[in-house]
Amino acid sequence: MGTWQSGAFLISAAPGAGKTRPSIEIARRLLARGEIDRVVVACPTTPLTRQWATAAGRLGLQLVPDAAELVAPRDFHGVAVTYAKIAMVASRWTSQCTGRTLVIADEAHHLGEELAWGEGFALAFRNAARWLLLSGTPFRSDTTPIPGVRYDAEGVAVADISYTYAEAVREGVCRPVTFIPYDGTLSWRSGDDVIEAGFDTVLTAREASRRYRTAISAELSDGLPRILAAAHARLQEARAAGHRDAGGLVVAADSDHARKIARLLKDVSGRSPAVVLHAEAGAHKKLAAFTASREEWIVAVNMVSEGVDIPRLRVGVYASAAKTPLIFRQVVGRFVRTIAGRPADMSWLYLPGDPVLRRHATDVEGELRHVLRRGDGDEELFDEREERRETEPSEAVEFVALSADVSPTSQMSLFGGGPAVAHAPVAPMASFTAAVPDAVPEPASRLSAFERRTILRDKRHRLVADLGRRDRRPHREINAWLNDAVGVTRVQDATIEQLERSVDLLLDALSGRVVRR
């Protein structure tokens, strides 16, 4: 790391292991040494830009979240912005980005997901000397190359620093996880045939997919509902053992599936769980509310990948339709996060005993490699080809889940299921940050600049409204007076000092201590 002067640098760290803080430390130190003059953090989603700005601000690196411009106000060291927004403004930002810009790409594998995202990112930041690429899953099931990532002669992604689950658990940075597959007798109608099988039976891709759909059906009383009851009992054990606000998460297949699961959980626990749907307005607020609460269960669809940080989650049920290694590892990452001051207690994840998921559970401890080209003999990583064909009239074959009689089978303990780590988590990737000398002292303030600006802008807005009501003056006129008085053209360009001055002027005006123009 100490020799990194230019180009891309890839950090592959297990989800939950903590890539944010080391990256912030690097940015702070490069700024303090005068090697860069601006930081850009690129993220998949808008809520993630706010999470980055908050975390960075508390360490003294001030970022504007969901920024509209590459050049930040004087109070800030840089911006946090989504890949989608970068793609929209790429050509304009190219001229604004210099060699002294540090670009941090969070969850960089998304750059291969949307062609426009990857192309826009590469165009917007082609002049930047350094790209710091971060990913807990630096590979893609669709084999699309990730911009900036180096590949060896076999087409495998090469990480500059790799930090596995095994290392994270050994150092107390992540919780150990026990996987609990469930299996038994499943039956379904496929056209005119009724098929009965467990997960140990070899089936065609179509019937294997239907077996899985039967296993996650919320309508078969001795199937998923039985597993939800077992998971709830496990959660109660964790709470009784001292983790009194321990939480549980069910990852559902779709919105209708999530609502059915929520009703089942209410029957089991006596309380309605939180339900968070990715297409629902206010979904991230629901996630935040659950994170801060003591509620037992949350059911979610497409809301539990990158950036969702709920350290109190201890028990999970995998009922998602997706079976790719990327999605699986991201779900596992929701249960490995630790809590300051608590030991790294065991977490449990219940999942169908499907061979694909069992393989993912076995492999999650090691390094998953992003291979650009799939060999002729490589097995398909998910069984959704038949489901796609079934949407075509010529291929339509009736499927009905009929019955399930399943129970938890032998446990699969991640890292051997050793005793819980008794010490507090240590700083991850010590070699990464240690390689960059000259630590910068952390600031005394625990509020980031963007949080302080948000508070001041809200206060200014309320005071402008108060003054407008009292004097019967339009807000536009009052804002123009304030902007002129503090020396800005637009309120969004105001520094913290100028916002504080605006608030003082408004308070003085409301108290009658100043003469307004």
UniProtKB/TrEMBL annotation:
Gene Ontology annotations for the cellular component aspect, listed alphabetically: cytosol
Designated name of the protein: ATP-dependent helicase
Pfam family, one: ResIII
Species for this entry: Baekduia soli
Domain of life where this protein originates: Bacteria
Signal peptide region: none
Residue ranges of domain Helicase ATP-binding in the record: 1-156
Keywords of the record: ATP-binding, Helicase, Hydrolase, Nucleotide-binding
GO molecular function: ATP binding; DNA binding; helicase activity; hydrolase activity
